[in-house]
Amino acid sequence: MDGIETLINTFDSRELQLEAALVIASHNANNGWIKQFKADHNSEDFYKNVIRWYIAEYGGLPSEVEPGNKIKLIYI
User: According to the model, what pLDDT value does residue 4 have?
Assistant: First the structure.
């Protein structure tokens, strides 16, 4: 898990947002599901918790492994 922490800590805010968005978009993200990623009003901690969960669950970053990598985000 140490390498994962090092990797996650290299991400800037936008990269964290995009990776977390892939996780949320690829799951039934209702209030109950989202509550598991408590971050005490700190959005970067929330994004990191979401990404950590995904890596533990699926073995890689959301942008690299399914189901997250099947999501196409729209940039406006």
Answer: 86
